[in-house]
Amino acid sequence: MSGLAVVSAGLGQPSSTRLLADRLAAATTAALGRDLPVEHVELRDHAHAIVDAALTGFPSGPFRAAVEAVTGADGLIAVTPVFNATYSGLFKTFFDVLEPGALEGRPVLLGATGGTARHSLAIDHAMRPLFAYLRAAPVPTAVYAAPEDWGAGAAQSDLADRIARAGAELAALIEARPAAAKSDPYEDPVPFAELLAGGG
């Protein structure tokens, strides 16, 4: 899969986490100025499968398709609610079950939501180290949204500005990223007759 993968770890429906994820995706596609397939992965819908994958060591069923959408995307938006000053357990477990190196070099836009602006530091002290360990490439601007950011007035305008800036940064990294190499080494096999001719 190529395109944009959007991982949202909100627990409620509707959730401010998914709302922020949607707005970040819209800002990114607008900055690209072209159509880009967008695959939304709501971790809430895969909660049991995520735990199963953590226990068995591999994803299965619809959850496998979600993992492939994330690991095969040109860019990733990852948004989590903040609980107890860090990302949610569901968010962390999802990234724990990915294969090592699956996100290496992948452009990532980080976002988070929480009940107070004081939790905004979770992006820098928890999320950035996680994605550095995964060898992904987070954009400089991350976006945190507290309850007051969704209201009218200056806070809302500031949130819109941060979303637009972060989306533009992710779009720039996606455009600059070289095309992925073929993942299947057997996609273009050497014809058997050619092998015989060279083996004489």
Automatic annotation (TrEMBL):
One of its GO terms (molecular function) is oxidoreductase activity. NCBIfam families: LLM_duo_CE1759. The keyword Oxidoreductase applies. This is NADPH-dependent FMN reductase. Keywords: Flavoprotein, FMN, Oxidoreductase. InterPro entries: CE1759_FMN_reduct, Flavoprotein-like_sf, FMN_Rdtase-like_dom, NAD(P)H-dep_FMN_reductase. Residues 5-150 form the NADPH-dependent FMN reductase-like domain. PANTHER family: FMN REDUCTASE (NADPH) (PTHR43408:SF2).
